[in-house]
Write a structure and sequence with these properties.
Layout lengths: L7 E4 L6 H10 L3 E2 L6 H16 L11 H23 L4 E5 L7 H7 L4 E6 L2 H13 L8 H5 L5 H22 L4 E5 H6 L1 H11 L8 H4 L38 H14 L9
Parallel strand pairs: 1-3, 1-4, 2-3, 4-5
Protein backbone atom coordinates (compact mmCIF):
# COMPACT_ATOMS: atom_id res chain seq x y z
CA UNK A 1 0.00 0.00 0.00
CA UNK A 2 1.37 3.43 -0.97
CA UNK A 3 2.17 5.78 1.88
CA UNK A 4 -0.29 8.61 2.42
CA UNK A 5 0.88 12.01 1.14
CA UNK A 6 2.54 14.15 3.79
CA UNK A 7 0.09 16.60 5.36
CA UNK A 8 0.52 20.37 5.33
CA UNK A 9 0.60 22.56 8.43
CA UNK A 10 0.41 26.35 8.29
CA UNK A 11 2.31 28.06 11.13
CA UNK A 12 1.28 31.64 11.79
CA UNK A 13 -0.29 34.15 14.13
CA UNK A 14 -3.81 35.51 13.91
CA UNK A 15 -4.59 38.23 11.36
CA UNK A 16 -1.68 37.15 9.17
CA UNK A 17 -3.65 36.27 6.04
CA UNK A 18 -3.94 32.61 6.94
CA UNK A 19 -7.59 32.36 5.89
CA UNK A 20 -6.65 33.60 2.43
CA UNK A 21 -3.88 30.99 2.35
CA UNK A 22 -6.39 28.33 3.42
CA UNK A 23 -8.67 29.28 0.53
CA UNK A 24 -5.74 29.04 -1.87
CA UNK A 25 -4.75 25.59 -0.63
CA UNK A 26 -8.35 24.39 -0.58
CA UNK A 27 -8.85 25.49 -4.20
CA UNK A 28 -6.16 23.11 -5.41
CA UNK A 29 -7.71 19.89 -6.80
CA UNK A 30 -5.48 17.70 -4.60
CA UNK A 31 -5.71 19.57 -1.27
CA UNK A 32 -8.49 19.88 1.28
CA UNK A 33 -7.97 22.71 3.78
CA UNK A 34 -10.82 22.96 6.29
CA UNK A 35 -11.45 25.83 8.72
CA UNK A 36 -9.47 25.83 11.94
CA UNK A 37 -9.69 22.38 13.54
CA UNK A 38 -6.99 22.87 16.19
CA UNK A 39 -5.75 19.36 15.53
CA UNK A 40 -2.69 19.66 17.71
CA UNK A 41 -4.75 20.82 20.69
CA UNK A 42 -6.90 17.73 20.15
CA UNK A 43 -3.71 15.68 19.82
CA UNK A 44 -2.45 16.88 23.17
CA UNK A 45 -5.59 15.69 24.92
CA UNK A 46 -5.67 12.41 22.99
CA UNK A 47 -2.02 11.69 23.76
CA UNK A 48 -2.66 12.28 27.46
CA UNK A 49 -5.66 9.93 27.33
CA UNK A 50 -3.82 7.16 25.49
CA UNK A 51 -0.75 7.44 27.69
CA UNK A 52 -2.60 7.29 30.98
CA UNK A 53 -4.95 4.50 29.99
CA UNK A 54 -1.98 2.48 28.69
CA UNK A 55 -0.26 2.42 32.07
CA UNK A 56 -0.65 -0.76 34.06
CA UNK A 57 0.46 -2.10 37.40
CA UNK A 58 0.61 -5.67 36.11
CA UNK A 59 3.66 -7.85 35.39
CA UNK A 60 6.57 -6.08 33.74
CA UNK A 61 6.35 -8.20 30.58
CA UNK A 62 2.79 -6.93 29.99
CA UNK A 63 3.68 -3.27 30.17
CA UNK A 64 4.21 -1.07 27.14
CA UNK A 65 6.09 2.13 26.42
CA UNK A 66 3.16 4.40 27.24
CA UNK A 67 4.49 7.54 25.57
CA UNK A 68 5.40 5.79 22.34
CA UNK A 69 2.08 3.97 22.32
CA UNK A 70 0.23 7.25 22.93
CA UNK A 71 2.01 9.01 20.06
CA UNK A 72 1.29 6.17 17.65
CA UNK A 73 -2.37 5.91 18.62
CA UNK A 74 -2.85 9.69 18.50
CA UNK A 75 -1.35 9.94 15.02
CA UNK A 76 -3.40 6.97 13.85
CA UNK A 77 -6.61 8.51 15.16
CA UNK A 78 -6.09 11.96 13.71
CA UNK A 79 -4.72 10.71 10.40
CA UNK A 80 -7.70 8.40 9.93
CA UNK A 81 -10.13 11.25 10.55
CA UNK A 82 -8.33 13.61 8.19
CA UNK A 83 -7.71 11.03 5.46
CA UNK A 84 -11.40 10.12 5.45
CA UNK A 85 -12.28 13.81 5.34
CA UNK A 86 -10.00 14.34 2.35
CA UNK A 87 -11.43 11.29 0.58
CA UNK A 88 -14.98 12.57 1.00
CA UNK A 89 -13.85 15.81 -0.63
CA UNK A 90 -12.32 13.83 -3.50
CA UNK A 91 -8.82 14.92 -2.55
CA UNK A 92 -5.63 13.22 -1.37
CA UNK A 93 -3.76 15.77 0.78
CA UNK A 94 -5.03 17.51 3.89
CA UNK A 95 -3.86 20.82 5.30
CA UNK A 96 -4.26 22.15 8.82
CA UNK A 97 -4.50 25.92 9.27
CA UNK A 98 -5.02 26.76 12.94
CA UNK A 99 -3.37 29.61 14.82
CA UNK A 100 -2.93 27.26 17.79
CA UNK A 101 -0.52 24.98 15.87
CA UNK A 102 2.42 27.30 16.54
CA UNK A 103 2.00 26.64 20.28
CA UNK A 104 2.34 22.86 19.87
CA UNK A 105 5.61 22.45 17.99
CA UNK A 106 6.60 19.62 20.32
CA UNK A 107 3.62 17.53 19.19
CA UNK A 108 4.05 18.48 15.56
CA UNK A 109 7.63 17.23 15.73
CA UNK A 110 6.63 13.93 17.34
CA UNK A 111 3.46 13.17 15.40
CA UNK A 112 4.14 14.55 11.92
CA UNK A 113 7.87 14.78 11.35
CA UNK A 114 7.27 14.46 7.59
CA UNK A 115 4.66 17.22 7.34
CA UNK A 116 5.30 20.13 4.98
CA UNK A 117 5.29 23.42 6.90
CA UNK A 118 4.25 26.77 5.51
CA UNK A 119 5.64 29.48 7.78
CA UNK A 120 3.44 32.50 7.12
CA UNK A 121 4.53 35.96 8.23
CA UNK A 122 2.99 39.43 8.17
CA UNK A 123 4.68 42.64 9.28
CA UNK A 124 4.03 43.56 12.89
CA UNK A 125 2.22 46.91 12.54
CA UNK A 126 -0.39 45.48 10.17
CA UNK A 127 -1.02 42.43 12.37
CA UNK A 128 -1.37 44.66 15.41
CA UNK A 129 -3.75 47.03 13.62
CA UNK A 130 -5.84 44.14 12.31
CA UNK A 131 -6.03 42.62 15.79
CA UNK A 132 -7.17 45.94 17.22
CA UNK A 133 -9.83 46.25 14.52
CA UNK A 134 -11.07 42.70 15.15
CA UNK A 135 -11.34 43.42 18.88
CA UNK A 136 -13.31 46.62 18.27
CA UNK A 137 -15.69 44.83 15.93
CA UNK A 138 -15.96 41.84 18.27
CA UNK A 139 -15.27 39.41 15.47
CA UNK A 140 -14.36 36.58 17.86
CA UNK A 141 -11.31 35.47 19.81
CA UNK A 142 -7.98 35.01 18.09
CA UNK A 143 -5.47 34.34 20.87
CA UNK A 144 -4.09 37.83 21.34
CA UNK A 145 -6.57 38.70 24.09
CA UNK A 146 -4.49 37.32 27.04
CA UNK A 147 -1.50 39.35 25.89
CA UNK A 148 -3.54 42.57 25.83
CA UNK A 149 -5.00 41.72 29.25
CA UNK A 150 -1.48 41.78 30.71
CA UNK A 151 -0.98 45.39 29.61
CA UNK A 152 -4.43 46.94 30.17
CA UNK A 153 -3.12 50.51 30.21
CA UNK A 154 -1.08 50.03 27.03
CA UNK A 155 -2.97 47.70 24.69
CA UNK A 156 -0.47 48.35 21.92
CA UNK A 157 2.28 46.73 24.02
CA UNK A 158 0.12 43.63 24.47
CA UNK A 159 -0.49 43.41 20.73
CA UNK A 160 3.25 43.71 20.15
CA UNK A 161 3.89 40.94 22.69
CA UNK A 162 1.46 38.70 20.83
CA UNK A 163 3.17 39.27 17.47
CA UNK A 164 6.61 38.81 19.02
CA UNK A 165 5.67 35.55 20.73
CA UNK A 166 4.05 33.90 17.70
CA UNK A 167 6.60 35.18 15.22
CA UNK A 168 9.46 33.99 17.42
CA UNK A 169 7.86 30.54 17.59
CA UNK A 170 7.49 30.44 13.81
CA UNK A 171 11.14 31.37 13.32
CA UNK A 172 12.12 28.67 15.82
CA UNK A 173 10.11 26.13 13.82
CA UNK A 174 12.08 27.07 10.70
CA UNK A 175 15.37 26.68 12.52
CA UNK A 176 14.71 23.67 14.76
CA UNK A 177 12.30 21.32 13.07
CA UNK A 178 13.58 18.93 10.43
CA UNK A 179 10.33 19.22 8.45
CA UNK A 180 10.57 20.68 4.97
CA UNK A 181 9.32 24.25 5.22
CA UNK A 182 8.55 27.28 3.09
CA UNK A 183 8.77 30.87 4.29
CA UNK A 184 5.87 32.87 2.87
CA UNK A 185 5.19 36.54 3.52
CA UNK A 186 1.63 37.81 3.34
CA UNK A 187 2.77 40.97 1.57
CA UNK A 188 4.33 38.94 -1.25
CA UNK A 189 1.20 36.82 -1.48
CA UNK A 190 -1.09 39.80 -2.12
CA UNK A 191 1.32 41.93 -4.17
CA UNK A 192 2.52 39.18 -6.51
CA UNK A 193 0.01 36.34 -6.07
CA UNK A 194 0.90 34.41 -9.21
CA UNK A 195 4.60 34.28 -8.32
CA UNK A 196 3.71 33.35 -4.72
CA UNK A 197 1.48 30.50 -5.89
CA UNK A 198 4.20 29.21 -8.17
CA UNK A 199 6.63 29.10 -5.21
CA UNK A 200 4.02 27.55 -2.94
CA UNK A 201 3.04 24.65 -5.17
CA UNK A 202 6.59 24.03 -6.33
CA UNK A 203 7.44 23.55 -2.66
CA UNK A 204 4.47 21.21 -2.22
CA UNK A 205 5.53 19.35 -5.39
CA UNK A 206 2.09 19.78 -6.88
CA UNK A 207 1.20 21.24 -10.29
CA UNK A 208 -0.32 24.72 -10.35
CA UNK A 209 -3.49 24.44 -12.43
CA UNK A 210 -3.93 27.05 -15.13
CA UNK A 211 -6.27 29.82 -14.04
CA UNK A 212 -6.32 28.72 -10.42
CA UNK A 213 -5.69 32.27 -9.21
CA UNK A 214 -9.00 33.33 -10.75
CA UNK A 215 -11.01 30.54 -9.14
CA UNK A 216 -9.99 30.98 -5.48
CA UNK A 217 -13.10 32.94 -4.50
CA UNK A 218 -15.53 31.27 -6.90
CA UNK A 219 -14.72 27.78 -5.59
CA UNK A 220 -16.79 26.34 -2.74
CA UNK A 221 -15.09 26.39 0.67
CA UNK A 222 -16.38 25.14 4.01
CA UNK A 223 -17.33 28.07 6.23
CA UNK A 224 -15.89 28.04 9.73
CA UNK A 225 -13.54 29.76 12.15
CA UNK A 226 -11.22 32.25 10.51
CA UNK A 227 -11.38 35.76 9.10
CA UNK A 228 -15.07 36.32 8.33
CA UNK A 229 -14.27 39.24 6.00
CA UNK A 230 -13.17 36.76 3.36
CA UNK A 231 -16.81 35.74 2.85
CA UNK A 232 -17.39 39.08 1.12
CA UNK A 233 -14.10 39.11 -0.76
CA UNK A 234 -13.95 38.56 -4.51
CA UNK A 235 -10.24 38.91 -5.18
CA UNK A 236 -6.77 39.41 -3.74
CA UNK A 237 -6.15 43.07 -2.99
CA UNK A 238 -3.23 45.06 -1.61
CA UNK A 239 -5.36 47.42 0.51
CA UNK A 240 -4.70 45.21 3.53
CA UNK A 241 -1.01 46.19 3.44
CA UNK A 242 -0.49 49.39 5.42
CA UNK A 243 -3.08 49.08 8.19
CA UNK A 244 -0.51 50.40 10.67
CA UNK A 245 -1.68 53.98 10.12
CA UNK A 246 -4.58 53.12 12.43
CA UNK A 247 -2.25 52.64 15.40
CA UNK A 248 -0.26 55.17 17.39
CA UNK A 249 3.00 53.29 16.93
CA UNK A 250 4.92 55.99 18.79
CA UNK A 251 3.24 54.75 21.98
CA UNK A 252 5.01 51.40 21.68
CA UNK A 253 7.66 50.81 24.35
CA UNK A 254 11.28 51.18 23.27
CA UNK A 255 12.16 47.58 24.16
CA UNK A 256 9.31 46.14 22.11
CA UNK A 257 10.23 48.40 19.22
CA UNK A 258 13.78 47.06 19.37
CA UNK A 259 12.61 43.44 19.43
CA UNK A 260 10.21 43.94 16.52
CA UNK A 261 12.91 45.62 14.45
CA UNK A 262 15.25 42.68 15.09
CA UNK A 263 12.63 40.18 13.91
CA UNK A 264 11.63 42.36 10.98
CA UNK A 265 15.23 42.28 9.86
CA UNK A 266 15.29 38.47 10.03
CA UNK A 267 12.16 38.21 7.89
CA UNK A 268 13.11 40.95 5.44
CA UNK A 269 10.77 43.71 6.60
CA UNK A 270 11.68 47.38 7.06
CA UNK A 271 12.19 48.85 10.55
CA UNK A 272 9.25 50.41 12.38
CA UNK A 273 10.43 53.92 11.55
CA UNK A 274 9.21 53.23 8.02
CA UNK A 275 5.63 52.82 9.25
CA UNK A 276 5.34 56.21 10.95
Amino acid sequence: MAAAPAPIFVLCCARSGSTLLRYILDTHPDIVAPPELHLLLTARQLAWLFEHTARTQGPADCRIDAKRYAAARTRETLSTIMSEYAARAGKTVWAEKSVSSIDALDLLEVLYCEARLICLYRQAPDVMASCAQAAQQRQGTFGFEPFVARTPEHAIDGLADYWLDKTRRTLIAEQRLANPHLRLRYEDLVREPQAALERLFAFLELPLPAGMLDSIFSSAHVVGPGDSKILNTTGIHTESVGHSARLAMEALSADRRRQINAMHEQIGYPPLASFA
